[in-house]
Predict the 3D structure of the following.
Amino acid sequence: MKNNLGIKNAKLNEWLDEMIELVGPKDVVLIDGSEEQAEALRAEACATGELFKLNQEKLPGCYLHRTAVNDVARVEDRTFICSRKKEDAGNTNNWMDPQECYAKLSKLYKNSYNGKTMYVIPYSMSVVGSDFAKNGIELTDSIYVVLNMLIMTRVGLDVLESMGTDGDFIKGLHARANMDAQERYICHFPEDNTIWSINSGYGGNVLLGKKCFALRIASYLGKNEGWMAEHMLILGIENPQGEIKYISAAFPSACGKTNLAMLIPPETYRNKGYKVWCVGDDIAWIRKGPDGRLWACNPENGFFGVAPGTNVKSNPNALASTQKNTIFTNVAHNLDDNTVWWEGLDNNPPKNALNWRGEKWDYTKYDKANKVQTAGAHPNSRFTAPAKNCPCVSKEFDNPAGVPLTAIIFGGRRAKTAPLVYQSFNWTHGTFVGSIMASETTAAAAGAVGVVRRDPMAMIPFCGYAMGDYFQHWLDMENIADVVPKIFHVNWFRLDKDGNFMWPGFGDNFRVLEWIIKRCEGKVDAVETPIGYIPKAEDINLEGLDYEISAGHKFGLDDLKSILTVDKDAWLEDFANIKEFYANKIGEKLPAALQKEYDEELARLQAM
Ligand code: GTP
Ligand code: SPV
Ligand code: MN
């Protein structure tokens, strides 16, 4: 069967016909980005039970979807980088020979669309036609994927138009096939601009514009073309004079990007006129701008955010973003008023509800130690919300030039070792700081939760080529740009001996952002330590801060001091672990400049 979609791009027609031949759909539908078509698809998905229409008075345009019980997170062990040479994928990626992978997966794809419709989604990452923009086509058999892509990316005929008769595009093929978890594959062919995803229907595995394209494929393109694709939020901080400074921040999955990106400053700052504007919550594409600085854009058009823990206090802007035209995935369904609920939304779990699996749910059985089984919402349940819903969305959101970066922040979820904040000495040392990042694993990926793993730049699951080459690319960016942002590291997640968070986090993280901006402006001093510059405790503004670490223990200056110290023994232990990581995972590709940073920092720590 040849497609009759009237497409003018010859490469697209050729590839499309080849894929149609492979998967054998009953018909082929072009997604044009119109509201009429989207509405018809929503109605169809509701008729088949793929979506549930929620209370349209309380949640207009909102729907609920449940994925298969064994398909609730990214599957890193089934994710492959299929470069021609194994060494180009590096030791931190799974690798398969591209020809072998195409052959193996072709067997699984063969006639997998039998009796189903193929949806052809033309989408652009970034503003259509801008300098940052890259086009993609995703083929899918899932209406859920179509509706999510309509929110998360810029979809429509203007994308086909911008591809012209012979423009390039990223070729994405998705099939739910028989949803066999043993045959689930998320495969990337960076040298062919191709992504093949099969046997999953969950978020990051199937919304191919997101992690697959905007990080894994784009990081490879960025290395070759002199720009960067990073797992970073972007936000703007407006001071009382109305000046806005932009920063980006890389934290691993479920470690606080969406929360920081939409932060509301504490009252004392709001009263003075400080504001935070959200440009992006997950991905940043960064390139040299006309002024020689590094400029960042968010290639996405919506938020695929973690639901649990989102509430009017922790992240009111995220919550507000989900009140219309949003798709909820794997949250609890309140049957009394046909709305949704998740752990941490409020203290009133619904009495008459279905859990994320669609079973009758008894909230009194909730056991924190066994969340997946007993929670109403899956720990990795998500909302897909349009960016324009966000009350604090930046006015630069659609600016094709992006925004200039003043600072870059790295961060992880560390119960100990990493202090609240520190500043690197320079770009090379900052790259080293990114390369030694570590974090406790979360529910965003299948596997154990809470285990410390090294996750350089929060890119371990998302870098489309060898991590050592990626570090070199970071070092090279200093020469590509004329001026580089200052690099910092933060940790909101220090625990006391009873497991309580020692730092209030959320909106109060603004107090740390203020110090970071002041450092960039040269307006505040710092203490030089072996790992970098650390604030003097009295330079972090605690005015109006009211936080109880535990019953009766109010956060005070001593607590701040304790999370601003460098624990020599803990750091030496970490350095032993870094040494192993560098040797086993980065290997010969480790840039000499980073080994030098390691040796010098270790010597400084030993001399402490
Ligand atoms: P991905 O979408 O998976 O990339 O996650 P993310 O990095 O955007 O993480 P998100 O902001 O959704 O936060 C994940 C979890 O961390 C939520 O349960 C939050 O409540 C929690 N969290 C975020 N910020 C803070 C903080 O400052 N302190 C504490 N203690 N928890 C936080
Ligand atoms: C993450 O895991 O970092 C996410 C969710 O943002 S997913 O789209 O599944 O990758
Ligand atoms: Mn993410």
About this structure: Residues 351 and 362 are 7 Å apart (CA to CA).
